[in-house]
Structure prediction request, 872 residues.
Amino acid sequence: MIPLHHILFFSSTLFCIGLFGALSRRHVVGILISVEIMLNAANVNLVAFSRWTGLIPVNAQVFAIFIITLAAAAAAVALAIVLTIYRNRKTIYTNEIDLLKW
Amino acid sequence: MDQLFVHIDQAIIHWAQAVLPDWMAVIVAMKIPIVAIAIFGPVTMMYLTLIERKLLARIQNRFGPNRVGKFGLLQPLADGVKMLTKEDIVPEKADKIAHLLAPILIVIPALLVFAVLPFGRNMIAVDLNIGVLFFLAMSGTTTLFIFTAAWASHNKFSLLGGMRSVAQMISYEIPFVLSVVPVLVVVGSFSTVAIVEAQPGLHWFVFTPWGAVGFFIFFICAVAEVNRTPFDLPEAESELVAGFHTEYSGMKFALFYMAEFMNVFTVSALVATVFLGGWQGPILPSWVWFLLKTYTLILIMMWFRGTFPRLRADQLMGFAWKFLLELTFVNIIVAAIWYEMRSPLNHLTAAAILIVTIIVLFQFNKTEIPKKRIYKYAYAD
Amino acid sequence: MFGIGVLKGMAVTFKNFVESYYKKERLTTIEYPEKRLAEKERFRNFPFLIFDEKPEDPRCVACDICAKECPPQCITIVRAQDAQGKPLKKPATFDIDYSICMNCGVCEEVCPFDAIFMDHEFELAEYGRFEDLNYTIDRLLKPKEHFMKIRPTDATRIEAELKKKENAKKAAAEKAAAAAKAKAEAAKTQASQVPDTKPETKPNEPAQPADPPAEAK
Amino acid sequence: MEVLTAISKVGIYVIFGVTLLGAMMAVTLRNIFHAALSLALTLIGVAAVFFVLRAEFLGAVQILLYVGGIMILVIFTVMLTTRIGDRTIPTSNHQQWPVLIGALLLLLYFVRMIGKTPWSIKSELAVVSAVQIGKSLVSTFIFPFELTAVILVAILIGTVILAKSDEGEEKS
Prediction:
């Protein structure tokens, strides 16, 4: 099987791609997509540790399941917010949503 | 006779080991189920189309395709050739990549799911220990790909069809997934082989009270998941032209068609495996039992198609959210009670609770007929 | 109870399905090329010409009435002429353009000589649209027996009329012959008393194609 | 036999490559719909990685929840918010390059840190079955489990209120 650190390299690159996306995307949904990628990177790390080093391997996988469910919840709320922004301001580009109170 | 195909499989492997270098032999050994499924899938799909057209024709007192080949047996080949030669039109403003990708992506889960079905005693391609969950996950992904097909063809009708089909598949996916839970509670494992082994001889789950209700819900949701009548709102010819695959022609449309019929086969195979005891059966060889049960379920689905009108959108949703979902929750609890109560009257209590819930749910969902209104000023007398 | 309507509907379609296998009157479709539905007698498709014995002398006498009457004007007739150019009572060419003909049956009604009738033949697909569908006389001519076969009642009626006309003509001919014979004797008796210089001319037979005695079917 | 292990090892790295490619496409593609599709590809790739790490239950749950659930939400939002004939302006804002450098530096730091730390690798690799996960979910993790349930209900209601089209208020 492949050594542990190869998977950690993979998940860290995935995380960095997500980070890059989250900070540099102009489209709000693009940011949400990148956040999802970062969460997945964390999941991969958890599963890798549960398989290689975890004392109680079950815990890591339960953490991963909690992450998935809460990521789903977070995505739902975030997309609802995006919809309301779009409905009020007719734009979903972050650089155009820069006024807090209008 | 029972282990016919297993012996064939062993024979090929022995032959491969004798002739080929050992690592090649292992690859050949791995490839046999893949080749079997790759042939079995499309062939069942082709002949399901023929059986459906013949059966619907007989219901409507007419023959059915009998021109091509002896009894119309070559009709699927003719359809295939027709689909191949048809011109493939891509709408000018369509999203080219997604338009091409959608049909391919829809066929992949339809084929992947064959790997988890137990066709007979130790005749299963891959004995995943999360068999049923893998099946449910794969059928979950088709929703997304149907929507990409709808969005990519840049056409109002297909977008409407796509929205309706996504709404329908999501609302029927929850009862679909949860109605298997009672079986998993009793069997204790996801693997399809374990589920079938837990139903020896004629002790199929469908004969237990929660099993019957579970079978009813699972089968109805399976019909809805495959977008077949009476839940075929997305492809409603009358109002939505052809739903999400309006803008597809030629081989791409054939792929949609193939995915639909393969889903019909695999979904009824899963219903047979989980509730009707897969290949368990008294005399006949195991794979004959499996095919018998699956094909009766498929024929029932086609029978539905010949009988029922299409459900309205709100009835469709109401049925899923206000009736099936509650019934599934109660079914899970009842299965747990039934499993814990070792005493023989567990069947009675389970049946009683379920019947009460069904009656209560029917009362809730009774469409309230408005009382006769009296128009004081309308009448001249 | 709940959901009984659903089961009733299923029962109906199941009955339909099962009975379509053993009840013959349920399956009414006629598989066309192999099994055919007998046409009704008065069914009329494109017209055809009748000849009694030989295709050379059809009943048609090229009187051109049907060509004039035909609403879409799709019949063209050219009268035959003998060696000296004297017109004969026979068509040299008789063309019906099937692509124009609307099979209304007017030609059949107006034909005084019962020479043209509407056929039951409808599988007339051709490759060319202009020259193939323009039927000439040789493709139009069909024996009397064909007409008897496809439209028995009309055929018998028309045969009876023809026979009656023939008998009447024959009777008239005999009466004329008898009268002529009687006049001849009378003339001879007169001649014997008073030699008459005017030569008797036997009333010649009306130039009538000798109609074979049509045997009534 | 070593040919097979080699093939399976290559297979794993192919899965890694495909997932990373999908992630990069999801982050950089101009057309947001294609970005959402490549996110689906990344999610399926991550599920494949879970299968490779012998965590089948998690892989199936990932596909069921992420691809079957969240992706539909994302695509619905994309569909509801793109106007026909929208002007597609460049996807990334002005701070693209500094962020790229920052991310690369972070990556370098991660890689160095991973390479250096002595991981206490267990002798035999653990395989977690669905039954174990189920049992621990309702035994040791019963509190977070119920808490997630409460959170999900709250979010259900919150999303409906947020996304409810407020024609009602405007008219009144």
Q: What stands out?
A: Residues 63 and 89 of chain C are 8 Å apart (CA to CA). Residues 43-142 of chain C form a domain with the Alpha-Beta Plaits fold (CATH 3.30.70.3270).
